Amino acid sequence: MARTRVNVSALYAALDAAKNEKQLSWRQLAAEVGVSPSTMTRMANGNRPDVDAFAALVRWLGMPAETFMVDPEDEDQKARPEEPELMAQLAPLLRARSDLGVEDVKYLEEVIGAAVRRFASDREARSR
């Protein structure tokens, strides 16, 4: 299926994480990206950014736009069966980071892997 809609919550979460890491306010982030602060407010309320703002936001994040694109007919965006394993997606990204050493990557993979296993266990327990 065609992925033609922006997953606003995923984009907003990525921006929030980057904002916190860089210790920016939403207003500072908007200025750094080159979008209006109202764009951030609209996204916080679940509204999609316009195409120019979307392009600026993903460029600032350094992530492909496809990362935040979803199929509008897929109602459960969180648990699509065709999605690859989280660690399979994250491992190459972690290893490509020039600011992380080999030991840093190994540690992050262990921590994230433990969290993923815990979440899966919790989901399985709830579904019983």
From TrEMBL:
This is Helix-turn-helix domain-containing protein. Residues 15-68 form the HTH cro/C1-type domain. Gene3D superfamilies: lambda repressor-like DNA-binding domains. PROSITE patterns: HTH_CROC1. CDD domains: HTH_XRE. InterPro entries: Cro/C1-type_HTH (IPR001387), Lambda_DNA-bd_dom_sf (IPR010982).
